Predict the 3D structure of the following.
Amino acid sequence: MGERSADLIGTSEREVLRNRSRTSAVTTAQVRDQGRHIRGHPPYGYQLVRRIRAALEAGADLVVVTGWISEVQKERGQVLEVLNMPRPQPVARDEPGTDRGSRRPAR
């Protein structure tokens, strides 16, 4: 049994949900009030928005930035398509000394 499930033995579902809610609320408050993020850096989406805003404030052309965002989304879609492709099943190999798959003439 894993550590996580061992910790939950004897804990009611209501308590688990309450603790999960409290943890989520504290994490949200830390991000909002203190600017703290898990592992010390904001999620990629926040970093991206920050970079886009900085580029626009520095005078970047909106059309160029929009085109860049479209390219990134297209590339992301292509990568996800490749990642979600079904994997080929391994081919069973005949083991030496077995009759399986042998092509002997029928007697």
Q: What stands out?
A: The chain has a mean pLDDT of 77.
